[in-house]
Amino acid sequence: MALRKLLGSKPETPYAKLPPLHVVVLKLKDAPKVVAWDFKDTHVTPTCTKQNKIAVLSDGDSLTKITLYEAMASKVQEGHSYFMRGWTVTGSSAPYTLAVGTATQFFRGSDIYCSEDLHNRAETLLDPSTPLVDLRHCQQQQGLMSVQGEVAEVSSIRKVQSGRDAVPVKSIVLQQDNIKVTLSLWREAAMQPINVGEVLEVSHVKGRTTQYGIQMGTTNFTRIQKQQTLQQLTILGVLTKDDVPSCSTTPADTIIEVLLVTGSTLQIPETLWDPAFDDLILQAPLNVTAKVEAFPPPSYVAHSSAHRDGGIELDYWSAEYGASW
């Protein structure tokens, strides 16, 4: 039975005996899923993670994607062909969805040839992209989309009941020009460290219109990317090697620590500190434009005395005196 015909029709009864299906596993991708969380005060910890996988199957003509739950994930290998027995078809309308369960068996069978075009389509099906939509137009967008904006607000993680399970959710407000949109980060996405002022691109989100305006939420396929931004930094002073105590954990031979006008300190690679700055900093505060990317510590980070859950990495800066790297 060809996949194209299979996904376009459905057995008349759920008890129909379906014949073995000859397919090849073109692509296989890890898809771990947290199924249990521990909530203690403001701390949330995943306590049980299922090591699921997503597979793209082909009969040599068409493609479909299935989820292999942990118990089934080790039974197939990418590039191998199988005869599937004990599969089912789900969904209320065509195209239907191929589903496997604990009763499904995979018998190693003869190889199926697939064209380069099928391989390319399998890549796209396994990791589909979503269109980047301006925040002012996201209300009109149908289906999944990607959005981008500066983080204006970040809430604390809260416990929300989703069906029978309690899951973590964190809300952020993204801003693009004068448009602000609330985005709810569900499950694993809620655990990512996010700070006000960062610029994010968030993929595979869906929106719905409420009395409070457009509300957006992440999905199982969401990816959050932090964009590098240019920031203006004013350096008041520098901690030289001679100033670092012998008991300090700071690797003084590889980094230099500077004091910013905000009261935060920034640790940077020594190679980015021009010896000429030693004299300039004695005359007046040093203003620099830094290309930074937020990320959780450790490494070269700027820590605030009030908040130590994140930092900034410096890979480029230029001083107002004309020096640049």
UniProtKB/TrEMBL annotation:
It comes from the Eukaryota. SUPFAM superfamilies: Nucleic acid-binding proteins. This is Uncharacterized protein LOC113030538. The lineage of its organism: Eukaryota, Metazoa, Chordata, Craniata, Vertebrata.
